[in-house]
Write a structure and sequence with these properties.
The complex is a heterodimer of chains A (207) and B (438). With 207 residues, chain A is an alpha/beta fold. Chain A has one domain: 3-Layer(aba) Sandwich (Rossmann fold), CATH 3.40.50. Chain A contains seven helices and eight strands; from the N terminus they run E-E-E-H-E-H-E-H-H-H-E-H-E-H-E. Chain B starts with a helix and ends with a helix.
Chain lengths: 207, 438
Amino acid sequence: MQYAIKIENLKKYYGETKAVDGISFSVKEGEIFSLLGPNGAGKTTTLEIIEGLRKKDEGEIIYFGKYNSPENFYIKEKIGVQLQNSAFLDNLTVYETLKMFSGLYKNSLDVNELISKIFLDEKKKARVKELSGGQKQRLAIAVALVNDPAIVFLDEPTTGLDPQARRMIWDLILELKGNGKTIILTTHYMEEAEYLSDSIHIIDHGR
Amino acid sequence: MFQKEFNGIVFDEKVEISTNNIEKTLFEIMEFSKKNNIQIDDIVIRKPNLEDVFLSLTGRTLRNDIMKKIFKLAYYQFKSDVRDFESFFWSFVFPFILFIILVAIFGNTNQMNIKDLNVGIVYEKNMNIISKGIFTKTFENIPMKKTVLKNLDEGIEKLKNKDLDVVLFVPKTTTLINDKSPEIDLYYVQGRSNSDISKNIVKVFIDYVNIEMIKRVKNVEDDVIIEKIPISTLRDEFSYKDFIFPGILILSIMSVAYFNVPFNLLFSREKGINKRFLLTPIKGYTYFISLLISSIAMVLISSIIIIVEGYFMKISNKFFSLKFILFYIFSLIILFSIGLIFVSFSKKLTTSIVFVNIFFQVSMFLGGLYFPVFNIPWVLKWFIYINPVTYLVEGMRRLVGFNIAPFENIWIYIVPSIWFLTAIILFSLNYKKVLGYE
């Protein structure tokens, strides 16, 4: 079994604070992997180091068994990321936003199909600033999927959503798994991790 | 490997080679692949198309998709900016309207051509033909548009409607035979500047008529000639339109360079928009360059609007010169670099909005965009001398003949260049902080 991502002894310090303090875990290809923990435990920091947004202080990350730098464009082509607080250009429409991002990748999915997949057909021509919280979250997930990634990172995809919208996103995540994608998500809901995940890593105080 | 041997462009599993000699190159490829044990799936030969020609000329690959990505991002950034009400208003609408307003308020008195002034002349019926002849001959020399009217009422009516600026009424009693000095009535509208000026000009001619009459009555020697008095065409002295045009042009660059560029950068950092772009396969500078391109596009559109507006207002031809265009580009680079200073310094969007607004207003007024500013106390004067806007607008004005500021030409380039260098140094020191995430 190949690992999509393997992390060993990852550390990140901000002065005296140990944001991430020696985390190790492996994510198998095709599974849903959850980082579960309370707010401020270091979930997002860990994820952002893996995604390449922050630099690690110590430790090792191996992508697809051979690459070790997230700066590599090959990795960037292969991962899709939904950030915790996603912001897009407010005055672009849903369609334009996805079109813009799809233009930045070598491979990209059909934007119209993607919009149907996240049930935003009606909002296709609506500007981003007109969307509700749940709709914005779905757009963020769509942007994460636009390059047909092998690994999808979802940072608290259901936080702040009503039960119905949460259900919708759960279904979407399971469908992605069905398509053979590896999914790494963070959450602080125990039942969410339990319902979705194949593996769970509990994280607290950066460990 | 291929790249070294054939000077070709390599794509994932494809190589593109340009050649003048197909057979020779084909042979070489075959030999090369045999030697290195490379299997070739397919070879396609085609004639160069326009893109190939372009590429060979510019030496760049458009397929080297960084450029494509930059322009794609710039396109969407531009779209987003134009749709934003505030940036649309301040970049396009405000300079356009301000130009009209300023010219309407201050432009009138100075910007008139005497030939456009209208004088109406009324000769009362039954006038002595000889006298009429003399008047006609004299008034022919008035350098305004002349209309002979049938009666005074018509003249007064037209004066009220601004069709005429002044009405000259010559009563039938005006004759050169009487000793009694004749009276000519001059109707004008007090306070209407065109009318005031017309009155003064016409008065001069009435004086000449008086001389003519005195000549006749008193039998003065006949060699007094009606001289053509040199009335300077006011156009040559000071044209407010030409004075204000560079000011408006600088304003339009400023509002994009001082506001759009820094605020877009800060906003996208604060909201996490650039963070999202950093996750895609683009380099950090890609987003920055696309943002600059989008802002420059906005400035150009705004400037073109103002230039067309100026063209219809009949600004001086000297503005449509290569020198002026080059100086415009110089100003654009300087002002954009100053925008980057704001980004380098600011930590929070809200505080920098306040700071930039103050700096913008002060630079605008103390830069002399709308009126000359060199007669103010030293408390404020120092700012005029360090303000790059002062030099840029003065530079534009000197190109069309104004010379308002008390400094040598060379300073017009030195001071803005110092700002430019400062900006580049500051920005490169803070580049990572501004565009990065961590």
